[in-house]
Amino acid sequence: MDRSDPQVQRNPVPSLLRSLMREHLDPGYRAAADAREHAHTRTSRLPSALWLALGAVMIVALLSYAAVDAAERIPGNRADQAELRSAVRDAEDRVAAMEHRYDELAATVDSARTTALAGDEQGAPILRDLSVVEGGAALEPVHGPGLVVTLTDPPPRPGLSDSAQRTVTGRAVVLDRDLQMVVNALWRDGAEAVAVDGVRVGPNVTIRQAGGAMLVDNRPVFSPYEVAAIGPAGALETGFVVSDAYLRMSSVKQLYGIGFAVAASDDINLPAASMRGLHEATTRESTHYSSTSGER
Question: Is the peptide bond before 224 cis (omega within 30 degrees of 0)?
């Protein structure tokens, strides 16, 4: 065959390449379009609409049930809350009545003891020794001049740095270690008696935080916290303003907005501390002992 023959195609174009160049749409798409045009494969949308309607009905029914259930629970919850509030108030009233009765009985005992011992030659020294011991144990109410340090929780505000160290339930608050530092500083500066919000600080009295509550001697106290100290007002104030506690609380006031105030007072009245039960132990054997609380 002569290669110069014009009928001979030197570079034949494959059929697949020719179809790609001439037919830009895949035959399957064209066939589907033709089928839809002639209504051969028309898809019904009725099942999809039914499923959507069924889902909407179920959601509405679920929301309605939740709303009705919540509405039925509200009266019960309110009744429970009212009952709890009433029980708390009753318990507080009973505790207040018992404390008042305790104070009356303690005053009666003190009066009878003084009457019995004051006029006796052997009883007078005992009475003086008891007075010294009770004063050291903070079992007597006292009054006199001194210093009052007030710490106040600030209103909540966002954007506190180091908030994890100074927040309780999301609020910046006065911490138990703040009160502890203030009380210890006042003792060191010469305080003769100290109380926090009217709760006398004596031996074995703790200041600690439990959740969002501040407890002094296991009794709740609330902001503003007034730390009152009886002693020489001038010496107390002079010593306190140069203490680490004063510097700490001044910094906390600037950083977190906690209220901090120091004021001298000519007459401060502090109650007596709570009396704790005494326990006595006697040796029976080398590895056993007995006490008022039990035997081991």
Answer: yes
What order do you get walking across the sheet with 225-230 strand by strand? 199-201, 193-196, 225-230, 142-152, 259-270
pLDDT tens figures, 200-230: 998 888 999 987 789 998 888 999 999 999 9
Its domain, for residue 178, covers: 141-270
Strands (E), the chain: 142-152, 167-168, 171-172, 193-196, 199-201, 207-210, 213-216, 219-221, 225-230, 259-270, 282-285, 288-291, 294-295
Residue pair 152/214 in contact (Cβ under 8 Å)? The answer is no
Q: How many CB atoms lie within 10 A of CB 25?
A: 8
Beta bridge partners of 152: 259
Question: What is the β-pairing status of strands 199-201 and 167-168?
Answer: unpaired
- How many separate domains does the chain show? 2
Tokens of 54: 């069924």
- Give the 3-state secondary structure of residue 221: strand
How does pLDDT run across 264-278, given as a tens digit for each residue?
999 999 988 877 666
Q: Are strands 288-291 and 294-295 parallel, antiparallel or unpaired?
A: antiparallel
CATH code (residue 190): 3.30.70.1880
**Token pair listed for 191:** 């305080």
Among 126, 121, 140, 224, CA closest to 182: 224
What whole-number distance in Å separates Cα of residue 162 and Cα of residue 174? 14
* 197 token code pair: 């919000």
